[in-house]
Design goal:
Blueprint: H1 3-27, E1 37-43, E2 46-50, E3 59-62, E4 65-72, E5 79-81, E6 87-91, E7 96-99, E8 102-103, E9 110-111, E10 115-118, E11 121-125, E12 131-133, E13 138-144, E14 150-154, E15 161-164, E16 172-173, E17 188-192, E18 198-202, E19 205-210, E20 220-223, E21 231-234, E22 237-239, E23 248-251, E24 259-262, E25 264-266, H2 272-308
């Protein structure tokens, strides 16, 4: 069989994979927080016809192409306004850490399930006072002990303290007791600051949500040495991989330039103009490889006709 047939078939497969990537990008042009991908090609192995000498260059024939990798474009496309005070846009580096379940045997409860990382801050408080994302997973903060072990703690209102901003009113302990005036369901004007701290109003008292030690309840951010190495898990989630490394945790503001913008979500970074251009290039590449198969078939037909004649 002609080697050109095998080379063209590999080219068709590579171009089809590239078209699949482009199709997924275009399908997610309006998906909040979506990061586009690009298929990168590489050539396959070679047959050496002549190893070459000091006077003659080597002669080799290739066997086509394949997709070397699918790389992610991790740049941010900016924010879109939502007018929801608990929606958050990460203006800078970092990912929200969300966890699928709680360990309620600890005080306060800690994260005890699968941890995902996301740039989509579509959050709300559930009936028990936990800050959850659109899939019901718990938004976390992080703390590291003296031995270097990191514990993820879900952000919550129940059991926390409303620390008045005026500095004179007594702290109010929030709870989930039905009918209690200090019930978290009575908390209004809930807002999240640029550093991830939470404020609210109970009756005529406005203050910041803190723990029993007057430390602000603050949304954490995860950072990675190689964020492009994160593994996509669907639902706007990422998981860690060997390429991404383990996360380091911080908060917005303070010693870094990242801030959280409320009332906003991150837009998809798909560039439709580039995607349509790449689609045309990929289509032409597919057509060219298909043409090679057609021409190779014609050449084989000519070869067989020699026998018939």
């Amino acid at each position: 069989m002609m080697k050109s047939l095998s080379s063209a078939v590999s080219g068709l497969e590579a171009q089809q994979t590239a078209m699949n990537v482009i199709g997924n990008n275009i399908a997610n042009v309006n998906t909040t927080g979506f990061t586009s991908s690009t298929a990168n090609f590489e050539d396959l192995y070679y047959q050496t016809l002549n190893a070459g000498t000091s006077e003659v260059n080597p002669s080799q024939v290739g066997y086509g192409s394949q997709v070397a990798n699918v790389s992610k474009n991790m740049t941010s496309a900016g924010a879109t306004q939502t007018d929801n005070p608990t929606d958050l846009y990460i203006d800078g580096k970092g990912y929200f850490a969300v966890n699928t379940q709680l360990d309620t045997t600890t005080t306060p409860p800690t994260a005890d399930g699968q941890t995902y990382y996301t740039r989509v801050g579509h959050f709300s408080f559930d009936s028990k006072g936990y800050l959850v994302d659109g899939n019901g997973n718990y938004v976390c903060s992080a703390s590291t002990d003296s031995s270097g072990d990191t514990t993820l703690t879900p952000i919550q209102l129940n059991g926390m303290t409303l620390h008045p901003n005026d500095g004179t009113t007594t702290d109010i302990t929030l709870n989930a007791t039905a009918g209690d005036p200090d019930n978290i369901s009575n908390l209004t004007n809930i807002a999240i600051g640029e550093d991830g701290s939470i404020t609210g109003t109970l009756g005529n008292v406005t203050g910041t949500i803190t723990d029993s030690s007057d430390v602000n309840e603050q949304i954490g951010l995860a950072n990675f040495t190689n964020e492009a190495g994160l593994s996509e898990a669907g639902n706007n989630y990422y998981t860690t991989s060997q390429s991404s490394g383990t996360p380091s945790y911080t908060t917005a503001g303070g010693t870094n330039t990242t801030v959280l913008r409320s009332d906003a979500l991150e837009m998809s970074n798909v560039d439709l103009a580039s995607e349509f251009t790449n689609m045309i290039i990929t289509e032409r590449g597919f057509q060219a490889n298909a043409r090679v198969i057609t021409v190779s078939d014609s050449m084989l037909d000519e070869l067989l006709s020699l026998k018939r004649s």
